[in-house]
Every structure is written in structure tokens, then in C-alpha cells.
Amino acid sequence: MSKLSYDLVIVGMGSAGMVAAEFASKLDIKVAAVERDRVGGDCLWTGCVPSKALLASAKAAHAMRHADRYGLTAVEPEIDTARVFERIRSIQADLAATDDNADRFTDAGVDVHFGAARLTGPNTVDVEGVGELRARFVLLCTGSRPAVPSIPGLEEAGFLTSESVWEVERAPESLVVIGGGPISIEIAQGLARLGVQVTVLQRGPRILPRDEPALAERLTEQVRAEGVELVLDVETDAVAVESGAKVVRGTAAGVRAEWRAREIMVGAGRRPNLEGLGLEELGVATGPKGVVVDGAMRTSVKSIYAAGDLAGRFLFTHSAGYEAAAAVRNMFFPGSSDATDFVPWCTYTDPELAHAGMTEAQARSEHGDDAVHVWRHDLSHSDRARADGHPDGEIRIVTAKGRMVGAHALCTSAGEVIHELALAIHERKKLSDLGSLVHVYPTLSMGIGQLAGDASYERAGKLGFLVRSRA
User: What DSSP string describes 197-252?
Assistant: First the structure.
């Protein structure tokens, strides 16, 4: 087979690879992309798209059950989860045929090759069935996969993961989820609303350990109220199959216990897809989180870059795309774009829980107690939240030495609300600065304006001695 030469070869066409390919196609360079399976990666096939489609169906079912909140007659929905999963697959198929179609990239001038890829040199990639591709630069975007804990009996019993759960024809009648991170909690709440009996086993003292603890606790209460059994401080030590049920055994807060269900799902984190790439032979440095990269997303081999889950910085679709674009910029416009460490995120439960910057505890640890102030807006005081029937939630802003360093929102559409706050943190704004923006009424974001007003009033109060008194 003849050797093909390119300016850039992208390995992996998931969230990072697709952004890199689209960006690179706009430049006057020759680009190739290699995919061993399906274009779209985890986000389309096993992550964001199917989980959000599931949550949409679950939210509709929940609204029917609680229609009396809106002056309507509540009804118990007739749920066939096979139809729900069929809807999920139809959405995936539609995206695969349009935005995530390989032809879209081919039409843009990217050569798309299918097959397993292996680096054979700093500037060469061997693709199974295609041959060797030569490149000035290589960008690795091979993503990650679910991590599976070593629990005796787990493999023999069989289990689902956040990937394989979308392959079932219908949801199991009961489910034990091992792990209490974002993926697990989203799926747990979604399936519970669709009639599945769900138990979540979390190793630590709370779910969503990276989020603001007080808001995570409020979400815990909400999910429990909907029927999800959340068990904390769990250590699992064995799995067995008994009388058609799968049994997880361990301890909860040091007390022996067992949990039974028709099926088990493992949601205990992810691990980078390093294997088979030839990294060790080339001397590409790796660590427990993945490929080691610098601020330019470059590996220890200067012609090879990595982005997304493989680089292990932030395991989010939006950060993967950001990192991939930064990597391409730095390849062809050196020094133009260091990848930021400031990445907001959102867990798409109902209500959603969004996060930007520091938690209160992190701010106090870094800046000291006296420098930190926490501003809280409870949604029980939000006209929009009360009108929508969702007054349970909170917007919380953390300031240090007067400037915003953290923001957290537990509310409907928190993923939309957080961006104004994230931008303000990124630009090192004071909370009072947001008071100069007129916030639309009635919106949830109006709460941000109210907090900004409070900050402005507080500052004005300190300057009250400057106000002239009238005779």
C-alpha cells in the first residue's frame, strides 16, 4: 500500500476529533481522520445524547404524575420502556445521518479512514486495512471507556455499564447502580421515573462529590423523594446470582448489607483508551488519568498532541471540543492558545446541578475565611420558579476579596443559567458588576440580578457617610 501524506492526522472521531476535523478543514492544510468504529464517539452513542433523550422521556412521565401541580388532573402514564429506548435509538440514528455523518467531513475536504490506528513513529500512523499515513502532526482523540471495579463475582454475574445500557431492548424491572457520579445519578433518576426500582450504592459520604455539598445534598433529598434508594458509605465486596436476581454484598457505614435487583449497572468512573496506540514504544508519557499533555495539549513527543478524555483533564464533551480546537491552533499557530483549566459543568438531573469555579470550601481554603462571602438566592423567592412549579432549588455565588470565584445553580435549566456566572468568574468580575446588566423578568437568571443588586446595596451602605443630608 502507498503512503499517504497529510499535515494533520486525527485519531478518533468522537467529540474532540470531530471538532478538530471541522476546524482543521477551514485551514489551508491537508487533513485525515481515522475512526475504528462509528463517528460520533461516546457523546452520540453511549453518553450525552442517549442519556438526555432518556431524561426527556422520564421528565414527561414525571409531569403527567404531578399534573395536579398545574391545576390539571394527574394521571399515571402507561410506560413501555421498549418504546422509550426505540426513541433514543431513532434520535441517535438521525444525528448519525446528519451532523455526525462521515460524509459531512469528507465533503469539507477531510479524508476519513476507518480502521484501528497505531502510531509507528512521531509522524506516522498505521491504519488497519489502509496503510501508513504520514503527518506533520498527529492528534489523538481516542476517548475513554467505563472503569470496571474488581469485585468477586461481578464478571460472572454480568452487568451493564453507561455504554451497554443503551443496547438493551427495554429497561430492567429493577437495577442496582454501583457508583454515585453524574452519569449514575442521571440514569438512576431517569429510570426511576419510568417505573424501574433503582438503588444507587455510593462509596463516599455523598453523591456528586465534586459539586457544592449543600446543593448536592438538596438534590439527594429530591432524588430520594422520587423513590431512588441512595445508599452512602458503601463498600462492595461480592456479587452473586440467586434465584434469578443479582445480589451485591458489602457494607453500608460499616454494617453488613446486600442489595438485590434484576440487573446491575457499573458507574464507577472511566479509564482512558491508551491501549494499542503504540504510545509506550514512542516514549509518549502517560499517567493514571491518560496521556500527559502540556498547556498546548502537546505530549512529550512534540509532533503528537492529545485532547478529550484521553488527556484526562476534564471528562466532558464540551471540554473535549475546546481542547481539540486549542491543539489545532497550537500546531499551526504556535503559542496561540493554552487550554484553560476553568471548565464549568452540569449534571442533568431534574433539577439540574451546574458548577463553575470553586466551591465554598475550596475558596475558604485558598483565600481564607475572612475573604470569602457566599451569596444565596433560594428559588422559593423566584417568581419564575414558583410560576413554573419548581421552587425547590438555589443559586449560590462565592466571592473572595470581592471578586467572583465560584457559582453553583440547582434549578431547571441550570446548565443554561451558569454561563453568565462562568463568564463573570473568567473575567474576574465583582458580583456587583452584574448589577449593571438589566436581567429579563421573569427568568431564573433574575435571581442573579437580585444577588448583584444585594452586593451593590451592601457597597452603597458602606459609602453612606458620603451621602449629603438635606437640611
Answer: EEEEE-SSSSSSTTS-HHHHHHHHHHHHHTT-EEE-SEEEEEEEEETTEEEEEEEE
Torsion of CA 32, 37, 41, 42, to 10 degrees: -160
SS3 state at 316: coil
CA 386/CA 423 separation, integer angstroms: 27
- Taking the C-alpha atoms of residue 331 and residue 6, their distance in angstroms, rounded to an integer, is 13
Query: Is the CB of residue 258 less than 8 Å from the CB of residue 248?
Result: yes
64 CB contacts (<8 Å, ≥6 apart)?
74, 75, 76, 77
Averages of pLDDT over runs of 10 residues in the chain (471 residues) are: 86 97 96 96 92 98 97 98 98 95 96 97 96 97 96 97 96 97 97 98 96 97 97 97 96 97 96 96 96 97 98 95 96 87 97 98 98 97 96 97 97 97 98 95 96 84 56 47
Q: Please return the burial class of 115, using the count of CB atoms within 10 Å of its CB with bins 0-12, 13-18 and 19+.
A: middle
Domains of the chain as residue ranges with CATH: 4-146+271-332 (3.50.50.60), 154-268 (3.50.50.60), 351-463 (3.30.390.30)
What's the maximum distance between 2 C-alpha atoms anywhere in the chain?
95
Does residue 174 contact residue 246 with C-beta atoms inside 8 Å?
no
CB 272 within 8 A of CB 289: yes
DSSP 468: P
